[in-house]
Amino acid sequence: MRRRSHILRHLVMALVCALMLIPFYWVAKTAVTNENIYAYPPRILPLKPHLYNFVDVWYLIPFARYFANSVIVSLIAVAGNIVFNAAAGYALTKNFAGKRIVVLLFLSCMLIPFQATIIPAYLVSARLGVLNSYLGLALPLLSTIVCIFVFKAAFEAIPASLQQAARIDGLGELRILFRIMLPLAKPAIATNIILSFIWSWNAFLWPLIITRDVTMQTLPLGLARFLAYVEDTTGALYAFVCMVLLPGIIVFLMAQKEFIRGLTSGATKG
Amino acid sequence: MARLTLSALRKSYGAHAVVHGVDLDVADREFIVLVGPSGCGKSTILRMIAGLEEITSGSIAIDGRVVNEVDPKDRDIAMVFQDYALYPHMTVEQNMAFSLRYRGFAKAEIRQRVAAAARMLDIETLVARLPRQLSGGQRQRVAMGRAIVRDPKVFLFDEPLSNLDAKLRVAMRTEIKALRQRVPVTTVYVTHDQVEAMTLADRIVVLDKGTAQQIGTPEEVYETPASTFVAAFMGAPPMNLLPASLSGEGAVELPGGTRLQLSGASSSRLDRAPSREIWFGVRPEHLVPARDTSKAEIVAKARVVEPLGSDTMVQFDLGGVALIARMPPKSVRAPGDPLAFTMDPHDVHVFDRASGRRI
Amino acid sequence: MSTRAILTSRFFVVPAIAIATLIAWNLYVAAHAHGEVSGKVVRADGAPARGATVILYERNLTSHFLEKTRTTTDAAGEFRFKDNRSHQIRLDTIGPDGRQGQPRILRLWFAAQDVDLRRPLVVSPSKN
Ligand SMILES: Nc1ncnc2c1ncn2[C@@H]1O[C@H](COP(=O)(O)OP(=O)(O)OP(=O)(O)O)[C@@H](O)[C@H]1O
Ligand SMILES: [Mg+2]
Fold first, then answer.
1. Which of A67, A199, B225, B250 can pair with B230 through a Cys bridge, CB separation 3.0 to 4.6 Å?
2. The model's pTM
3. B240-352 placed in CATH 1.20.58.110
4. Is residue B105 left, alpha or beta, with left meaning phi > 0 and alpha meaning psi from -120 to 50?
5. ipTM of the complex
6. Fold for domain B4-233?
């Protein structure tokens, strides 16, 4: 009885997964054929699949350049997120004057959409002289409030006595953070890596505004540019989409175990 | 070599005072035990000594140097935490070596110290393991090893044995006592277990609600408790305390009409009593079965009989107050058996009713 | 974290494999990207077509093919281009008699990939 309901449950979950994956499949299928997606009746299996669309993408736009730009910007954003969010999250586990106000400010800032802050962000970037640079591209993504709270929750789950032992052992706050707290907050780190990577990898509006040179553009901008060249819905476009998605999927798969734990930790004790 | 001096030490959290002025002078190599019920401020005092907690007023001095404003790491103290606080991501060896690494010790020196401590604590075979691969008792040893390698001026222990099961606790207690002979370092040890306090301490500080009720050797604290609180706290089962009154000339009137004549020193003390209303105290083992019932000072009937093997604990009522007596095994067998006790006047305690202080 | 633990973690292994693959691929590309396109032109009856013209078109961004160079086949009907820079080319043939053969579109794995056509290009048989 138990076994049967187990199998049934798995079947249902497999079905739901399959439904969720259909769009991905369709993208991948179109990428390896040149089939028109509006073709009727639609073909389930690809006919004569080939990978030349990917080659086309590589040469039709400076893919390597965009890719490198995206990787650099994302690495900066991920590194910034880990360092800044961990530091902020750690600070929020302490008691200090005005902490409530700071937390309140953070929470209310989460309600403001990024589009609303684009003009000030642009002006700040311009003042800093980082327009059209990698740092400028990564700047608004260097820290994310949600992820600060992810770190805060993770740090709060670590027994306070560890910090105290470290203080007695002679560590300063920064060292406590990097030697004791961070190694014990791996799920939070994974959550930060995945979320900040995906956000910076997919960022479109901000790179569009802040880059002036074609050589500084990132993949999402490349996608837009690509659309301008290739009006028809050919496989090349879908191949390009696959190439943009792939790194994000790889990063997610690498960090997913810790990621899931990070999102659910705090929900249950232990 | 270190003396530790607490003077008028106070601590408040906002308006809520937790420690109300504790004075304590710990001699070099002395083992002091802070004991008291949960929430009395033991840990708070210890953490103030460690520098983990801000001092509201008063001062703490180590070897004459006031350390109120000194960072924990510069106080030259080592602390063993109740939950051990071992770094989960480091091996036993790394845990023990950790503080030395940040204190600029040479690698060879660190290795040698860790090895020596591991040998002393009999954890040499465990050095490559992670804390989660250790049993509770082994973790406890590692925690002590981490403190020992530092060779600090003062050891601080915060209920180090409270997470162990009863048997292991007794074993570790003996081990701490043995260790203490090999590593005689000034120590402040916090516990709520009065047996630990009695067995380990050179001197005991009995705390209640943030004040030191009594500071003395285990014998002093046990034999001449300074207050009803100390009398009731130290000893298991606790001292019998009865509301009684003085009727002059060293006589004490107990509930149920029993009169007890105290002679000599104890009777002259009674003259200094601020009021006639007192608490009369006698430890269960000091209720001596009377051979001759007519000379007995207390006569009653057993209500509950608890044979423990070595002794039999007997509960009975006296004028509506429940008392407990420790009797030889098999001397009383069933509830309802007649009881008759005498008391040695030197073994009874008299406390002022209002203040609870010893008279 | 020990060096060993870092070296065996996914976060090291996966990027390392990706980078290794990338390097290997680029080495392969560098060794095979001379832009040489060679092949043979035959007539419908299978005889080598001597003196046929082969035209190389490269594809550009706007999906049109532009002529790059042309050459003529030798006695064995073979031809060879040495300066293809594109990843997608079209080969047109014109027989010695001026009749056009079937154009062939070649999609390459990378630009200037060296290719040797396995199937010869076919032009119509000459009248004689
Ligand atoms: N951060 C804090 N803020 C407010 N009150 C506190 C704080 N820490 C401790 N207290 C209070 O101080 C009192 C003493 O706490 P402490 O931890 O010293 O008790 P304890 O004697 O160690 O008890 P236990 O045996 O349970 O460990 C308690 O009443 C506690 O509620
Ligand atoms: Mg405590």
1. B225
2. 0.80
3. no
4. beta
5. 0.83
6. Rossmann fold (3.40.50)
